[in-house]
Amino acid sequence: MKSVFILSLRRMAKTPLGFEPVEGSLTSSSKKREYRVTNRLQEGKRPLYAIVFNFIDPRYYNVFATVGGHRVTVYQCLEGGVIDGLQSYADEDKDESFYTLSWACNIDGAPFLVAGGISGIIRVIDTGSEKIYKNLVGHGDSVNEIRTQALKPSLVISASKDESVRLWNVHTGICILIFGGAGGHRNEVLSVDFHPSDIYRIASCGMDNTVKIWSMKEFWTYVEKSFTWTDLPSKFPTKYVQFPMVIASVHSNYVDCNRWLGDFILSKSVDNAIVLWEPKTKEQIPGEGAVDILQKYPVPECDIWFIKFSCDFHYNATAIGNREGKIYVWELQSSPPMLLARLSHMQCRSPIRQTAMSFDGSTILSCCEDGTIWRWDATAAP
Asked: What pTM did the predictor assign?
C-alpha cells in the first residue's frame, strides 16, 4: 500500500515564544514539588489528543510527539523552557483524525513513531529516514490507544472501537494476535497496556466498563515467528485470544485509561479519581471480577471520558489533567496518597486530554482540546 503521508521537516522558533512563566497553584504537602509554566505552544486549532515522551531510547528521552487532526508532530524539550520543533507529518486525507501514538523502534534500534486514529489504519513512521515504514491494516474501526512493549520495543498493541485489541510486530508489519471474541470486550476498547516485567500479560479497558487481563504465553511461539516471517503479512497465521485471565468490574462507567503499577493496576473512569487495585485470578479467589481496591487518587472536574494520565519512567508519580485545564500530580509510592502539586494557569481553561511526564518527572507536558501544548518545569529546591 502506498503511503498517504506527506512529510515536512521544519524548524520552529527555539525561544519560549515570549510566554511569561507563571507559578501554578500548588498543594501544601511537605513533599510537594513546585512547578511553573515555562512555555505554551499553539499547535493548531484542532484538538490534541495525545502527547508522549520517548522512553524507548535513552538518546531521545527529551523528545516528545503529539497528535491532533491529521498531523503527527515531533518536538524536543531543551533547557530554559525551550521547545524545539523537529518534524511534522501530515496525512493527505484531511478527514483523518489521530487519537493516539507511541514510540517504538525497529530491530536495528531505529526510532519509530506509531500513530492511529479514526481511519483504523496504523502508521509506522521512521523518524530517522523521515518516511512511512509500514501501514498496519486490520482494525475495522478507529484506534483509541497504542502502547509499546518496553522489553521488546518492536511489539506494539492497539485498542480499537471494533471491540478488539491487536498485537503487532512493527518490523515485519504482522498482526500476531487478536484479543477478542467470546470473552472479549463488548464495546469500544479505549486503553491497553503491557505489564512492565511479565512479557506475556496485558490489560485492556473500555466502554463496557470492564478491565480485562490477558495472557499470550501459550501463543508466544507466534510472537517469535513474527520476527523471521518473510512471506506477506496477510499470510501470517494470526491467532485469536478469546478468553482473558481476569475480567474486573472496578468502575460503573467507561474505563478510558489503565496502566500497570507492578502487579497492581491504575485505572480511571469518569468518577473524578484514579483507582489503584490488585487483580485476583480465579485460582486466588473464585469468581470473575474479584479485586482488592487499594486506594484512590482524587481528580476533581474529571468527569468527561478520554482523558489519559501519564507517569514518569520509574512510576514514582502520575499526572492527570481535567476538563478545566488543571493538572493533578500524585505520588504513587505513598499510602495514603499524597498530592504533590495542583497546577493551574488562568489562560489554560480547555480540557487536557493527556499529560506526559519526563523521565524524572521534572517536566510535565499537557495537550489540550484547544490545540495548545503547555510545559511545566519543577523549580529548584531552595
From this structure: 0.92
C-alpha cell at 307: 482523558
Q: Can you name the residues that pair with 158 across neighbouring β-strands?
A: 146, 166
Q: Which is nearest to 329 in space by CA: 9, 31, 3, 43?
A: 31
| Cα–Cα distance, 91 to 93 (Å, whole number) | 5
Do β-strands 174-179 and 239-241 pair in parallel, antiparallel, or remain unpaired? parallel
First to last CA, the chain: 57
Cα–Cα dist 239/242, whole Å: 9
Q: What region does 62 belong to: left with phi over 0, alpha with psi -120 to 50, or beta?
A: alpha
- Least Cα distance to 367 among 329, 319, 332, 313 occurs for 319
The domain 52-229+241-312 is placed in CATH, from the list 2.130.10.10, 3.40.50.720, 2.60.120.620, 3.40.190.10, at 2.130.10.10
Looking at residue 219, the DSSP 8-state letter turns out to be G
Task: Report the SS3 class of residue 5.
Answer: strand
| Domains of the chain, residue spans | 52-229+241-312
**Cell numbers describing residue 216:** 499470550
DSSP 25: P
What pLDDT score was predicted for residue 282? 60
**CA distance readout (Å), 336 to 30, 31, 46, 276:** 14, 13, 39, 12
The average confidence (pLDDT) of the chain is 91
What are the backbone dihedrals phi and psi of residue 24, each rounded to the nearest 5 degrees, phi first? Answer: -85, 170
Number of H helices, E strands in the chain: 1, 30
Q: Is 86 helix (H, G, I), strand (E, B) or coil?
A: strand
Distance between CA 67 and CA 100 in Å, rounded? 7
Mean pLDDT by 10 residues, the chain (382 residues): 40 36 40 91 95 96 97 97 96 90 95 97 95 95 98 98 98 98 97 97 98 97 97 96 95 98 97 95 56 96 97 97 98 95 97 98 98 95 55
pLDDT tens digit sequence for 83-118: 999 999 998 778 999 999 999 999 999 999 999 999
